[in-house]
Write a structure and sequence with these properties.
This protein is of the alpha+beta class. It contains 3 helices and 5 strands. It is globular. It binds iron/sulfur cluster.
């Protein structure tokens, strides 16, 4: 009986380890997929700066009124702001690449 109990405990332990490993893999995969990239089509951008109001953490104008991308890659915490920047761009020069 004790032998059976020990085997059961070992089986549960292995099962829990496998689950933990699966969970870690899922978290790592999810973290990788959460990284997005803000892409500027420079040939379309006229530097009007409308986008910088929506996502100042990612975009700003320099002293020559040229658009500067402060951070190409960003996480979910800035996704709404990046989407707003994309939405307001009158030249459709911004897009979000999710294949990072
Ligand atoms: S809103 Fe569009 S066109 Fe204007 S600076 Fe930003 S990316 Fe360039």
């Amino acid at each position: 009986m004790q032998f059976h109990w020990r085997n059961t405990q070992m089986a549960l332990s292995c099962e829990n380890s496998a689950r933990t490993e699966d969970s870690l893999n899922a978290i790592q995969l999810s973290a990788r997929n959460d990284i997005m990239k803000l892409v500027v089509e420079w040939s379309l951008c006229d530097g009007n700066g409308v986008c910088t109001v929506e996502a100042p953490e990612l975009l700003r104008l320099n002293e020559q009124d040229e658009l500067v991308v402060l951070s190409e890659k960003f996480g979910p915490e800035l996704e709404a702001k990046a989407q707003a920047a994309v939405r307001v761009c009158p030249k459709r020069a911004l897009r979000i690449d999710r294949s990072q």
